[in-house]
Amino acid sequence: MINYTLIVVNIIVHFWAPTFKWGVIIANLLDSSKSPEELSYPQQAAAIAGSALVWAKYSTVVTPKNWNLFSSSIGMAATAGYQLARKIQSTVTINYDHFQARFLFYSKLLTSLYVEIEG
Known about the structure:
It holds the Pfam family MPC. It contains three helices and no strands. It is mainly alpha-helical and 119 residues long. The chain has one domain (4-118). Helix 1 packs parallel to helix 3 and helix 2 runs antiparallel to helix 3. The longest helix has 52 residues, at 67-118. It is rod-shaped.
């Protein structure tokens, strides 16, 4: 006897889920042209990378193993990791530049005060 429910589940999970995930990967790659300030930590870390790693694990546990879902999930995690690295690098650079500007301001201020006291 044919189990039609199993056939439908296999078609939905083993084909359509990875297919739509490749669309997310393409969208995330297209976001590489955006400036890092426009990227979102929660979207990249929790939504994309987190769900990708969960589904990558799940795709190897089910029977039969879904290698298409595994590869698309790893691709999603990789693109999210790349975007997160860009965002973190941008944040660190901005904070460093801000710190450097404040340091220069205060050093000039202290130098001018020292000159006034000496003078």
